[in-house]
Design goal:
Elements: H1 14-17, E1 19-20, E2 30-37, H2 41-54, H3 58-63, E3 69-72, E4 87-88, H4 91-96, E5 109-110, E6 114-119, E7 124-126, E8 140-141, H5 144-157, E9 161-163, E10 168-174, E11 177-183, E12 186-188, E13 194-199, E14 203-211, H6 218-226, E15 237-246, E16 254-259, E17 272-279, E18 283-291, H7 301-308, H8 312-318, E19 322-332, E20 344-345, E21 348-350, H9 366-385, H10 392-399, H11 402-409, H12 421-433, H13 473-479, E22 492-493, E23 497-499, H14 500-509, E24 515-516, H15 519-522, E25 528-530, E26 532-533, H16 543-546, E27 550-551
Parallel strand pairs: 1-10, 2-3, 2-14, 3-9, 6-16, 14-21
Antiparallel strand pairs: 4-8, 5-8, 6-7, 10-11, 11-14, 12-13, 15-18, 15-19, 16-17, 17-18, 20-21, 22-27, 23-25, 24-26
Helix pairs in contact: 2-5, 2-9, 9-10
Length: 565
């Protein structure tokens, strides 16, 4: 039996729950000039660029009040919940910090060698010539967690206020104009009751609001629905699970793999691959990425990564080492056709991953996010000088930039893989060589939650955990630095009684063991089962939103505390 997760929608009403007018009395509202939601590359680049511009605009800076720029960050610190590969192109760092040498950037090392391998269960076959979309010479291996902390420090040096441990819970809208955000409550019990340390949320009103929430942004999704901004195709996502290892022998090149342990037949639609990147101090980052449009409810990205580590090629790299970090995150992969049809509405802009600015064939997104933040800041400052809340200049800047050009060129390269690994690879290669011109047109795709799921054996070969080299999910949650309190309210919205295939999808997909089917129902054979949720395990990867549920912000400060991801 096949069942699509979308048949069991989450109990959510964006328009009533997540969008509305300010409710605090005017004298109790927190007033800022520019409110930036999200302390990642896009949001912090926007904050830094806006601060740079305001240095030459003292009159405007004074009009923006005591807090001209505020970053609302739900993690304990900027970077706390950031995770990526990542091979970063240097263009945005060069634009934002023209006086800094790359040796002063928070990067691991410049890429001078790279390789791509096709894996079989026992062999690693080098692909030569290397596919051009995997070439990374001149890029920089980067921990975005470290990058976020560094950008946060730079922003504070520029006078930006960073509101850590503050969840943006609601988009404030009056007369169809975005007026800011409302922060979430703190100190509620699991049942929603007020504890002794309860602090109510506050209206944070602003003259301009930048949504830079990253992948599957809570308010960004609400804004897309409320203002009907969705692109011509639905957004879709991939899930990445990553480990950082200290190893005995330093790695001298960036490595990507494709093929095993993913299955090649089109019926399973298993798209993805792995990355192994050198880091400083004899460390290596290794990760597995899979598209969330697969069909087997037992597929698990975390367990695929563990299986990958059993390959002789990978074992040789990690031999004698130890795992020092782990994390998981989704990646928007819908590309050009899934980007919002508008990137601004009166009072607000959407940037970076929240707008789907990721080039999946080239595995790039960090520099697009930062460039979009820079463009947003420039457009907002220009508009505010004219006392306007029309930020359409931001859209024009994006469309005239490499963001538009690069994403349009790769607009159809992800879709052909639904035809299977070999056919899809051949078509995508033709698109790469012709820069998207052949085959041209508009290759449409489905919403990930529309894909019918069935229980079909993906988990049969996953290795058993010893928690020394092969790790289970709970051990890995601990390695993420997650310190969410057990009695916090549940921030995960799913139906509690669903088709077995949907429940199994959530159980297997989640890298943090948030979802479980009760023991007595596992072997019952019932068509529908209950879903139990341990929300305190959640590392906020966002995959549940892509596959039929809805992740909402937990209490500010909850979630992972990544250091090196």
């Amino acid at each position: 039996m096949s069942v699509a997760p979308k048949q069991f929608p989450p109990p959510v009403n964006d328009a009533e729950e997540f969008v509305g007018p300010p409710t605090d009395p005017e004298e109790e509202r927190i007033e800022v000039g520019i409110a930036i939601v999200g302390g990642g590359p896009a949001g912090l680049a926007a904050a830094i660029r806006a601060a740079q511009l305001l240095e030459d605009e003292p009159e405007l800076s004074e009009k923006l009040g005591e807090v001209p720029i505020a970053v609302v960050e739900k993690g304990k610190t900027p970077g706390a919940q950031l995770l990526s590969g990542a091979n970063m192109r240097p263009s945005a760092m060069e634009e934002l910090f023209p006086d800094l040498d790359p040796s002063d950037w928070p990067v691991e090392q410049e890429v001078t060698k790279d390789a791509v391998y096709l894996l079989t269960p026992k062999m690693a076959l080098p692909l030569k010539p290397m596919p051009p979309n995997f070439r990374n010479h001149g890029n920089y291996v980067t921990s975005v967690a470290k990058l976020g902390r560094w950008l946060g420090e730079k922003a504070e040096e520029e006078g930006v206020y960073i509101l850590n441990e503050t969840a943006a819970d609601k988009l404030l809208v009056e007369d169809r104009i975005v007026r800011g955000i409302r922060s979430g409550d703190k100190g509620r019990g699991k049942d929603g009751s007020e504890l002794s340390n309860f602090e109510p949320g506050s209206d944070v009103v602003a003259k301009a609001t930048v949504l830079a929430e990253g992948t599957l942004g809570h308010l960004s999704m609400a804004a897309l629905d409320y203002y009907d901004l969705h692109g011509s195709d639905p957004q879709r996502w991939e899930l990445g699970v990553k480990e950082v290892w200290e190893v005995e022998e330093p790695l001298d090149r960036v490595i990507h793999t494709m093929g095993w342990p993913l299955r090649k037949r089109a019926k399973w639609n298993e798209f993805g691959g792995s990355f192994i990147y050198p880091m400083a101090d004899n460390k290596v980052s290794i990760g597995m990425v899979i598209g969330l449009d697969y069909t087997d409810a037992t597929l698990s990205c975390h367990d695929l990564l563990q299986e990958l580590k059993t390959h002789p090629f990978v074992k040789k790299i990690l031999e004698g080492g130890k795992r020092v970090a782990w994390g998981a995150k989704t990646i928007p992969s819908g590309g050009y056709w899934a980007m919002p049809r508008r990137l601004s509405v009166p009072g607000m802009v959407i940037t970076g991953d929240s707008a789907g600015m990721v080039n999946v064939p080239e595995l790039k997104g960090v520099h697009y996010a930062m460039h979009s933040g820079i463009y947003a800041a420039e457009a907002i400052v220009d508009a505010l000088k004219q006392e306007s809340v029309n930020f359409e200049e931001y859209e024009r800047k994006v469309k005239a930039s490499a963001i538009e050009k690069d994403l349009y060129r790769s607009r159809n390269m992800r879709q052909p893989f639904s035809k299977g690994f070999f056919v899809g690879g051949a078509i995508a290669s033709a698109m790469t060589v012709t820069k998207g011109a052949f085959p041209g047109g508009h290759w449409r795709h489905e919403d990930d939650a529309d894909i019918p799921m069935e229980i079909d054996g993906a988990a049969d070969d996953y290795p058993a955990a010893d928690n020394k080299y092969i790790f289970d999910k709970l051990n890995s949650v601990f390695a993420s630095g997650n310190a969410t309190r057990d009695d916090a309210p549940n921030h995960v919205r799913v139906q509690s009684h669903v088709a077995r295939e949907v429940a199994q999808t959530w159980v297997s997909m989640c890298p943090a063991q948030v979802y479980e089917i009760p023991e007595d129902q596992l072997s019952s054979g019932a068509a529908e089962v209950d879903v139990q949720i341990t929300a305190s395990n959640c590392v906020q990867c966002g995959a549940i939103t892509a596959k039929g549920g809805r992740l909402t912000p937990p209490e500010g400060g909850d979630g992972p505390l990544y250091q090196e991801t």
